[in-house]
């Protein structure tokens, strides 16, 4: 668990040094993980998002059409 503030970090080193060392090690590991070269948070291209929205709309229209056809047949 990372420290919430410098004040907390100082307190933890003074009162609970074992826990503070463990937290510092975890914090450093997280920072290393984030700093890896080539690391990027994947974001969808806007055209893919538009395509997904179009597909959802088409599915909804087909479902509505099928529901109307089913009710008409009853």
Average pLDDT, all residues? 81
Largest sheet: none
Strand content: under 5%
**Distance between the terminal alpha carbons, to the nearest Å?**
61 Å
Overall SS class: mainly alpha
Radius of gyration, whole Å: 27 Å
- How many structural domains can be distinguished in the coordinates? 2
Low-confidence stretches: none
Q: So how many helices? A: 3
Tell me the series of helices and strands, N- to C-terminal: HHH
Tell me how many strands there are. 0
Shape category: elongated
Helix residue percentage:
over 70%
Folded structure, characterized:
The chain has 74 residues and is mainly α. It folds into two domains: 1-36; 44-74. It contains three helices and no strands. Helix 1 (6-15) packs across helix 2. The longest helix is centred in the last third of the chain and has 28 residues, at 46-73. It is elongated, with a radius of gyration of 27 Å. It starts with 5 loop residues before the first helix and ends with a helix.
Which SSEs are present, and which pair or pack?
Blueprint: H1 6-15, H2 17-34, H3 46-73
Helix pairs in contact: 1-2
Q: What's the quick description here?
A:
By secondary structure, this protein is mostly helical. The protein has 3 helices and no strands. The chain folds into 2 domains: 36 residues; 31 residues.
